[in-house]
Structure prediction request, 106 residues.
Amino acid sequence: MTPVIGRKYTVLIAVCSSFIGVALEYVAKDNATFFGGKFINGLCIGTFNTICLTYVSEVSPLALRGILTAFCNLALSIGPLICVALATVYGSLPNVWAYVCSVLVE
Prediction:
């Protein structure tokens, strides 16, 4: 099956949609708006993860394919670790940032 729009335009659409999702999360005053932003941003992050691993597995040489795919997955695992560290540090603040940082982990 032939790709319809290709990887570059898919990443461009995902980046623009991710901006929208982050903006919704930032200005959210209720749970529904915050959930909408998280949902949009989650779809974009899933798109990045899928395209990254597909690109690495197609472009890298056969001898390096396994290690580069493992590094890709390692990079995707470091992000949630940073989120947990931020939520641990900033989760006890008495202002709205404590809520925002604690929801990052969920």
Q: What stands out?
A: The radius of gyration is 17 Å.
